[in-house]
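Hey,

The postdoc asked me to send both predictions to you directly instead of through the lab channel. I've kept everything plain text so nothing gets mangled by the mail client. Protein one:
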Amino acid sequence: MRAKPGLLITRHRLGFIMANAGIDASNVGRPGAVILLPVDPDASARRIAADLKRLTGHDIGVIITDSWGRPWRLGTTGFAIGQSGPPAVRDMRGVTDMDGRILETTVIGTGDELAAAASLLMGQAAEAKPAIVIRGFVYEDSTDTAAALIRPAEGDLFQ
């Protein structure tokens, strides 16, 4: 944990390293109240996806997002805290790029990229857009969870 007045950097029980442990006082609806992260956001995403399937007859991927500030970068962006359907990561190692070079380290955080795109449209203040539909992203269903996006401690050079 790291701290300075008004800010704590912590590892949340879900594994996310974030400011103020994911406790949010924005858009809560009443003064003095805060919102906590879901207990099991991946289970919440699976439940929502199952309800959508029951209601529509279609498999619809679901990503539950939150927003956070990033180290060494200005600005808040969305990230995936729970998901069902799309892959959380896409391992491109071994794939050839357009110049014929074999990729050696590229692993795409698909869940986070989709979350960031949705967050841009959802807004961060009074936009009141709790859900965004993203069309055109082609994927094969995955059993990945957002937990797959968390870098294992042994590979985390920043802590």
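Protein two:
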Amino acid sequence: MSSVKKVKIIIISDGTGETAKAMCRAVMTQFPDRDVFFTRFKNVRSKEQIKSIVDEAAIHHDLIIHTIVTSELREYITEISRISHVRTLDLIGPVLTTFSNYFEQEPNSVPGLLHQVNNEYFDRVAAMEFTLNHDDGRNVNTLHLADVILVGISRTSKTPLSVYLSQHGIKVVNIPIIMGQDLPEELFKIDQRKVFALTIDPEALHTIRRNRLTRLGAEQHTGDYADNSKVSEEIEWANDIFKKNKRWPVFNVTDKALEETAADIMKLLTMRKNNIFKQEMSEEDTE
């Protein structure tokens, strides 16, 4: 039977504690024969929480490792741990001091920022995955989960615009408008403020489609795809749909950079969000 004593290491963090956890895992690979288990305390933001943890650690002689960015709380941990004879290791303080000296600037000392950044990253990844799975009218059964739904005829930048928006954490579905075919019923069952229509001038669309056929080596087999009259008819068909659905804002993408159209859509989303927030606050004030 092993005579090695099982020990506990306590992780204290004002965020998730993932930084300290990852560091401890890396260190413990150098001590494979040690029997250690970890207890993690997340979102620690007060002296009362810290004192309670340190008091418990003192009973069992546990080691405390912390990543607290607030200098006042770090100093408190040092002070109370000394009094209680508890060993502590500050993983973030020396790093913050070094960077502060190097940049000649005080750190923000805002707790939980790394967790916030990580959440934003995973939100973007989820949005991109969602968007790619809903390209060109696929999976309309989960249309209600989208933040933005783009509708437009072929070659109005639906897919590239969808991908660009998803990189900002926006879940996008794009649905093609095909002349003579009805749009999916699901589109009219969700919040119509999510729907954004894309249109384009006939001359520009004709040029785009003609150039695409040339790149594909199919300029001799255009059919209706790049025919002037058919292009105009297709645009009119789509514009008639937009007129019937007055809640859909229409964006003309003719000669506009992708980023410009995306910025217009995000601006409108922000305005709507702020307006909803103000309305909710106003309703709370009257209660």
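Summary for protein two, as requested: The first strand starts at residue 7 and ends at 13.

Thanks,
C.
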